[in-house]
Description:
The protein is α/β, with parallel strands linked by helices. Among the domains are: 1-32, no CATH class; 274-366, no CATH class; 510-652, Rossmann fold. The longest helix is centred in the middle third of the chain and has 22 residues, at 319-340. Mean pLDDT is 90; it is low at 115-127. The structure holds adenosine-5'-triphosphate. Adenosine-5'-triphosphate (ATP) binds next to α5 and α7. The site of adenosine-5'-triphosphate has 22 residues, from α5 and α7.
Amino acid sequence: MRSTAEALVDVGGDAYASERLGAQRAERLRSLADLPDVPAFFGRIDQPDRELHIGRRHVTDPAGDPQVIDWRAPVSRTYYQASAADPQGLLLRRRFGFSRGELTSYEDEDLTRTASRGHQDDDERGGDGGPALGQLVVAEIERPRSGPMRDIVATIQPDQDDIVRAPIEESVCIQGAPGTGKTAVGLHRAAFLLYSHADRLRRSGVLVVGPNRAFLHYIDQVLPALGEVDVTQCTVADLGPAVAVRAADAPEVEAVKADPRMAQVLQRALLDAVREPLEDVVLELAARRYRVRASRVASVVRTLAEKVAAPAERREVYYSAARARLARAVAEDARRQGEAAGFAPTDGETARAARSRPVKAAVDAAWPARRAVDLLADLYSDPALLARAADGVLDADEQAALRWETRPRSLARAPWTAADVVLLDEVEGLLERPDTFEHIVVDEAQDLTAMQCRAIGRRLATGSLTVLGDLAQATHHASLGRWSAVMAHLGRPQATVRPLTVGYRVPGEVLDFAARLLPSIAPDLPGPRAARRAPGSLRMRQAADLVEVAADRAAQEGSTAVICADAAVEPTAAALRSAGLDVAVLGDSGTGDQLSGHVVVVPAGLAKGLEHDHVVVVDPAAILAAEPRGLQRLYVVLTRAVTSLTVVGAEGLPAELT
Ligand SMILES: Nc1ncnc2c1ncn2[C@@H]1O[C@H](COP(=O)(O)OP(=O)(O)OP(=O)(O)O)[C@@H](O)[C@H]1O
């Protein structure tokens, strides 16, 4: 297929057509480029009359006959869904095992055996009564981690496949315990939708929103490995305007800024400067003078203000565009007067009149141009404006929490906080229509505040959402706590919540241990079930044993992370280095070499969503004490391990875990 594409000659009817053909061919070659170590197929299904190989993309022979079927094609579905109990027309499923691109093994499942026989085989039962996993699937899950996240296309499980292939119209919300594959499922769903609805999605795109740069860096190879290179990935902060964050809010201040009532306050503040004019506008149109009555202009201003204040999904007019509309309305009024008097001003003359000085002055007075940063700075530093905008919405204490002592002279150096960026984005969403996407995948969504949800929802004009998260891992104090609230603020309140309960990452011993925190942090959630058990995977050690434990784990195959309270990162790294260990520290940006260092020290605040073969959790008491939701943070860090978890300083574990 590659040589066919390479051999084509880009001759179109003219230079432009030839150039377009060349660009298309380059695109095709790019999508056909092989990634080293990525085999052309990973599975086979045998139907009574044919055998089909399943792979990451279609492969055809020179005659155009399919040799490998794309995993996303409808016929591939049986590869993921068939079981002995419900063979779906298959006789056999074969999984191929590869090592560094070389075929090393295969495993057959005879789907003609009856269900009861299959499930009684000891080696087919999952760790905690979960699904029966073949040896190749277990080997894939346990394969040592290094570097970024991998795709799971060869081994997607039936409950995961249901979500991956849910119809594009359906917004889905997935509540899944740690390591159940939420992130993997969300990314594979993006790839599935891009394949199944290529035209629709390539035009307006797919967006993946993650919690921080380190996480985005960790997942950024998955979609390219699946042949999808045109997906935008960003953090919620990236959605907002590029202002430098120079300050942090106290929790009670952040709680006010994250509250959805702020949307109303900001909208009122924006429209506060809009004035119905008291004076007529006198303007020239096609060399004649006209007077447009103040009452006429006022009525246009009122209508526009109502339209700008409409809920986002029904908003037709944005604040900035309303200025041009107002100017046009004034000029059009003059034109009608001219027509009534027997003149016929042209479109061009009317447009010129709309740009004339008296009309501009009238628009500036009635509907002043605004910038988000000015508006928010005004709101924070002008108590009278704040009182007008927040009247009946925020109480006196809440208003006081927002106030700045003084308005900084330069707004570029203002003490903006992360929550302010979200508010600035809300204002920008009133000023201009944001760029929108046809599908948005939101990961770690349990931590979103109402205002962050609104920022994401605004970017979803008519499309649908895949929302992934675990309420038990919600560490942000202003997060919403209920999926119904998250989905409502995202603008898709009807979404169904689907659970994923089988944990693939964490061995049963470790998962059961961490889950003892659930009654305290998320009593309504079902306990997770581990797909496999690994005796000896959980160990408790004294604080003094840190260096010895880290050295021992680092000597094992796979990645080793030492997770500690954010404030303890430097001393912990220093202690390990002075013992001669090769240590990297994971920073916000999460660059590759930090992730593949021999021992990587991970601040607890950045551990979410990541995983490592061996995890050493240092001083749980400090992690617990570092933040109001310390128990949730501890649950996150205890559920990062694929192979082993060692708690160092186990004497400081909370009562639930001792
Ligand atoms: N069907 C599968 N086959 C092989 N590996 C899988 C499968 N499902 C999940 N995994 C692996 O399990 C690990 C956890 O997956 P993932 O990170 O998507 O879980 P998560 O639910 O997002 O976890 P967290 O709650 O910690 O964010 C990953 O290494 C992933 O590759």
